[in-house]
Structure formats: C-alpha cells, structure tokens
Task: inverse folding
C-alpha cells in the first residue's frame, strides 16, 4: 500500500482543469467548432448572394453565438470554480492506494489555522469575535472525511505532467496529486499503481 499526504494550490487546480479539458472537452468541442464554422460560412454565402434574405443573417448570427459560447463557457466555468475554491478553507489530504480502491481523506483547515469558534442563536450561526460570548459558543466539529474510489466500479482515467498526477473519476471529478509533495519513490509508486491498474 502506498500512502501520500498533500495539499493543492490554485495554480495546480488550474493546471489539472486544463488536463481535464484536453481529455474530455476538446474531443467534443473541435467537431462542434467545425460545424458552427460551416454554418457561419453558409450564412455569409447567403448574405453575399441574397442580401435581402433573412436566413443568411440568422445562420451567421447563430453560428457566431454558438462558437463564442462554446469556447468561452469553459473559461467562465473555470473562473467561477477558482473563485469558489478561494473562498473556502484550506484542505489537507491523505491518499491510500489499495488493491481494490483508493481512499482519500480530506481534512478542512480553518483559515486562521485553528478550529473556528462559532455561536449558535435563533438568528443562525455566527463567528464569535467578542471574547465575552465565548461561553455561549461551541467549537465547530471538523472531522476528516474519507472518500472511497472503487477501481472496478468507477470510470477512471489518470494523467501526468511535469508537476502533478491527476485522477479523473466518472468524467466529473478531479483528484490532484502534486509531485512537490511526493518523494521520488512515492511518485514512482503512484505512477506504477496507475499503470498496473490500467487507469
């Protein structure tokens, strides 16, 4: 069994998202790009041949709109994802590579590197800043969460570049294992694990 401990930085998340797009999005985007480009060409041809016909303008406008949407939507999605992640607390991870599954334990680290003190009242949950009300507060229970990824029950694909390993699960989730957190031996073990499991 190989076990590693790591965290993820924003640049690493961006890099992993780019790998994910190359694997899953580009094979779909390229044929659609060709289709929309053809629609634009046909529309432009209609406009040149029959400037009074509306269909040429509609075809061109639709093709341009779909083309712009197709290429800008992933960028906007990534930006929204990064903005959301930046607002969250830091997380540390432990991953265990077992024979039939991968276990990933997530530990949430509050931004002040301490357990956040919160007060519960009829108005909801508030962060306690006034030391006088500490007696009315409770400590937020931060427990590690464990995710189990079945080797044979999930659709898995791995990718590696010079800085990280990525594990894509069911074309929806990305797990990032940065090489800066691994020894050469650990990096070799992770690489061999993915190769042995044909991931």
Result:
């Amino acid at each position: 069994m190989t076990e590693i401990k790591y965290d993820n930085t924003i640049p690493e998340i961006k890099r992993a998202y780019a790998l994910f797009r190359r694997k899953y999005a580009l094979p779909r985007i390229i044929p659609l790009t060709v289709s929309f480009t053809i629609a634009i060409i046909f529309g432009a041809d209609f406009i040149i041949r029959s400037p009074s016909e509306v269909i040429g303008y509609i075809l061109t406008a639709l093709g341009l709109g779909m083309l712009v949407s197709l290429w800008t939507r992933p960028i906007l999605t990534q930006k929204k994802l990064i903005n959301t992640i930046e607002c969250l607390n830091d997380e540390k991870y432990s991953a265990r590579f077992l024979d039939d599954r991968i276990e990933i334990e997530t530990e949430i680290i509050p931004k002040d590197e301490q357990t956040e003190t919160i007060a519960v009242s009829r108005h909801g949950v508030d962060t306690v800043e006034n030391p006088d009300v500490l007696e009315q507060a409770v400590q937020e229970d931060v427990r590690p969460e464990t995710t189990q990824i079945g080797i044979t029950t999930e659709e898995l694909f791995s990718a590696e570049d010079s800085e990280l390993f990525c594990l894509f699960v069911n074309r929806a989730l990305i797990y990032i294992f940065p090489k800066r957190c691994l020894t050469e031996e650990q990096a070799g073990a992770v690489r061999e694990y993915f190769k042995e499991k044909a991931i």
